[in-house]
Structure formats: C-alpha cells, structure tokens
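RECORD TYPE: protein structure
NAME: Flagellar motor protein
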Amino acid sequence: MDIASFIGIISGVALIIISILLNGSLTTYIDVPSLMITIGGTIASTLISYPLSKVLDSFKVMKFIFFNKPVNNSEVIKQIVSLANTARREGLLALEDIAENLEDPYLKKGILLVVDGTDPELIRNIMETELDFLEDRHKQSQGVFETFATFAPAFGMIGTLIGLINMLKNLNDPSKVGPGMAVALITTFYGSLMAYLVFLPMARKLSYLTKQETLQKELMLEGILSIQSGENPRIIEEKLKAFLSPKVRELYDRATSQAGEGELNVTKG
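PREDICTED:
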C-alpha cells in the first residue's frame, strides 16, 4: 500500500474543507449543475480523445497507484546471487524447480528461458520487448490522467462563462449579481481541484512507479544474463549493486556484512 498517496489525497481534501469551514459554509461550494459541467465535460472530452477500453484501463491503474508494492532492489539482488550460487554448484538445470516458486513473473520467465538453453541475445530481445510493452501500457494510462487534468480546468472555465452569462441576464437586479458570480466561479474551483489534487499527481506518481519498475526489471535482466554466462556470484553482486543509490548500497553492504558475521558465529558455535 502506498501510504503517501492516501496521505496526500486525504490531507489535501481535509485542509481545503477546513479552510472553507473557517470562512463560511460547505454548502456554498456544492452546486450540482457545476459538477455536471466539470465532471461530465471532462469525461466526455477524454472519451473523444481515447478509446473506451483505454479510459477504463486507466481507472484500473488507479488501484496500482494506491496499492503498489514498494520496489526492493536489494532483495532482488540477494535473490539473483542465491540463484547464481545454485547454478554454480549444481548447474543451470537446477534452477528450474526454484524458478517455479519465484514470485516475480518477469524474473521467473527469464530464468526458465535460461534453463531451456535459449540464446542470450534472444533472451535479451524477448525480455526487452516485454519491458517496452510494460512501459507503453503505463504511458497510455499516464496520458489518460494528463488528459483529464488538461480538460478539467478548461470545463471549469466553460462553466464559469455559462454562469457569467446567466448572471449578466440579471444585472437589473443587483441582489443577484454577487451570488451569481459566486456560483459561476465554483466550476473553476471544481476543475482546478480535479486537475491539481487528483489527476496530475496521479500521472506523476504513475510515471515515478513506471521508472522504478523498469529499473528493477533491467536489474533482473542483467542478473539473468550474468547467471547464464556463468559469472562468479560475487562479481554478479558487485555488478548489480551499481543499480542501487549510494544510500541503499551502503545499507545493503551493512546488512550483508552483518548476515555474514552471523553465519560465521553460528559456524563457530
């Protein structure tokens, strides 16, 4: 679960509601026709821009934004080093049973291709193609969210214009000018809220998650090809550590060092 996404949405809405209540009433900001113009218009324009299936897919991706599993490249490196040790001791065929229990389908597929004796260049092509399609799928959903964010303020402005036109019709009654202006501006408020609190942040988060997932898959691919070429597990580990940030690399080295000392103490005991 991505706590940051929940905190961002809930705290953003809560702070806006509190600021409204401190200066007036929440009911002042509720206007059904304005909601229909802003939400309905934004959805209609997005449906014109993308096929229905892509729009529906983007709603499914929302679940990924809020309930994604944190990327842990350190654990992946340990997993690959363990696979490399097994391959070095017992041969590549020994990886077949282990691969069946691997949780990540991308790593599982790569290891099974190695076990099958697939040419390294073909493995790279297959895995990179899969990675390209994964990026394309995420970019399409990101594009849908960015389209929502583009159209929402525009329909907010259209709603404001409609409200202003209706207000100008009642200029002979000064008592209706102020309330009319307030209602007209509500659509701009709705459009800005949808764009800058919901859809643009979602597009940015999806872009970030895509980069993290792509980096992890590239790490896996390098590990898979290194195992196939029979490289020393220690060399593979050092090579894959280049994918970690300096801080994460330091934590990884500290954790593996402590684990090594623990094993040594157990052996002495």
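COMMENT: The chain has ten helices and no strands.
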